[in-house]
Design a protein that fits this description.
This protein is an alpha+beta fold and 429 residues long. It contains nine helices and 14 strands. It binds tetradecanoyl-COA (MYA).
């Protein structure tokens, strides 16, 4: 999940978004207290990193239990079937994540779902649906994809769990734990004993937490839908002028990424991510899948990636960046039915390896400025980024504002020391 976050001044002054306030202690998490996850009280203590529980494959049930509520049943979805992909799209469009005030709801496109759920190594049995037995209507969903995840020195074979969704009419019936236990069983059956997942809400207990930042591209529309406030003492005209961008990019050698760039981008990305405490370990197949737009997978474009080719170094690729499209429905707004948001995705730059902090800050600002120009050209309304990687080095200069949303990162059945969200701009650590 990506938490829906709005630009907010009040929330920053008072501390946190409502979803982030911890109103429940461990004992009241009736489900999570039974699971192999760290408790809040242990989350900040130094630990030896490793699995929490050893799973005995012989004790993993081979079949799903009958679904917990009469009149409903499990159904493994076939997302190579256009109609079933469309059913997941419909469920999420009407029932997936909303912000605290129910102003916006994520509207993942079916292209996005096709891309995100059929990543290299995807398995049909990790696309789990629940249907009403008689009407065959899809009422709940949870998914996993396989990822190789490095947490500091250890590389884990994990599943990444996402798109947990229950129809609004079936909420608060303790069905989420039923779905989570079933996806857990299906991972165990495959010998996968760890998982990574993210959520806007606070659960026991995050391994890291990032804040969302937003950079207005179409300020007037964001103001009209209630996403951006008009700061006291400013005017609409001044806000529009503040976020104006040039028509063309400035970095010499910048061009769209192509399939022929995959190996060079993988090399750069691997070296860059090796400096982070936690990151996915990519194969070249995964880099191609996640970064190169392919209209066979995404009839509607989802990912935009650019590389910098240095003519002075024989055409060497020195940098790349990418962003993806995730729209949100503006609930009940006929003038502006959706917000088109670009989310900063992966990037890397050779400058990160020079040890020159000032040069890195300058380079990233140049690259991200161009990313904003390109996103504006591609008709996005807002550009979002988290406080991870080296993002804190450019967020302020590129006129991002802090949002009211946070994104919590969780590991299932793995104990790890807390990872500070983002890089301290002062120390670059
Ligand atoms: S995060 C996106 C989640 N989806 C949405 O927010 C969409 C809109 N909301 C809904 O569809 C429902 O409200 C959901 C809850 C389905 C979220 N992650 O059935 P309930 C716990 C984990 O009565 P409902 C994403 O997709 C809650 O704390 N647990 O509640 C990543 C409580 O337990 P406890 C959650 O509102 C998902 C229990 O469920 C979440 O009807 C990663 C209440 O159940 C949540 N987002 O349904 C899942 N929300 O009493 C974990 C609520 O203990 C994967 N709960 O506090 C773990 C790894 C598994 C694989 C392991 C392999 C090794």
């Amino acid at each position: 999940e990506q938490m829906l976050s709005k630009l907010s001044i009040a929330d920053i002054l008072t501390g946190m978004a409502a979803s982030q306030r911890n109103t429940k202690d461990m004992a009241s998490h009736k489900f999570w207290q039974t699971q192999p996850v760290p408790k809040f009280e242990d989350a900040m203590k130094p630990v030896e990193e490793g699995p929490i529980k050893v799973i005995d494959p012989a004790r993993v049930p081979k079949e799903a239990p009958p679904f917990a509520v009469q009149g409903f049943e499990w159904d493994t979805l076939d997302l190579t079937d256009e109609g079933q992909l469309q059913e997941v799209y419909e469920l999420l469009t009407h029932h997936y994540v909303e912000d605290d005030e129910a102003m916006f709801r994520f509207n993942y496109s079916s292209s996005f779902l096709n891309w995100a759920l059929k990543a290299p190594g995807w398995r049909k049995d990790w696309h789990i649906g629940v249907r009403a037995t008689t009407s065959r209507r899809l009422v709940a969903f949870i998914s996993g994809i396989p990822v190789s995840l490095r947490v500091r020195k250890n590389t884990l074979s994990c599943s990444e769990i996402n798109f947990l969704c229950i129809h609004k009419k079936l909420r608060s019936k303790r069905l989420a734990p039923v779905l989570i236990q079933e996806v857990t069983r299906r991972c165990y059956v495959q010998g996968v004993y760890q998982a990574i997942y993210t959520a806007g809400i606070l659960l026991p207990a995050p391994v890291s937490t990032c804040r969302y930042f937003h950079r207005s591209l179409n300020w007037e529309k964001l103001y009209e839908v209630g996403f951006s406030p008009l700061p006291a003492g400013s005017t609409k005209q001044r806000q529009i002028a503040r976020y104006k961008l040039p028509k063309e990019t400035e970095t010499p050698g910048l061009r769209p990424m192509e399939t022929k760039d995959v190996d060079a981008v993988l090399d750069l990305l691997k070296r860059y991510l090796s400096r982070m405490d936690m990151a996915q370990e990519f194969s070249s197949e995964e880099v191609a899948h996640w970064l190169v737009h392919d209209e066979k997978i995404c009839p509607e474009q989802v990912v935009w990636s650019y590389v910098v080719e240095d003519a002075n170094q024989g055409g060497k690729l020195t940098d790349f960046f990418s962003f993806y499209c995730l729209e949100s429905t503006v609930i009940g707004n006929t003038k502006h039915p959706t917000i088109r948001a670009a989310y900063l995705f992966y990037y890397a730059t050779e400058t990160a390896f020079t040890g020159d902090q000032k040069a890195l800050k300058e380079r990233l600002n140049g690259l991200m400025h161009d990313a904003l120009v390109l996103a504006k050209k591609a008709n996005f309304d807002v550009f979002n980024a988290l406080t991870l990687l080296h993002n804190p080095l450019f967020l302020e200069d590129q006129k991002f504002g802090a949002g009211d949303g946070q994104l919590n990162y969780y590991l299932y059945n793995y104990r790890a020391n807390y990872i500070q969200g983002g890089v301290d701009p002062k120390t670059n650590k």
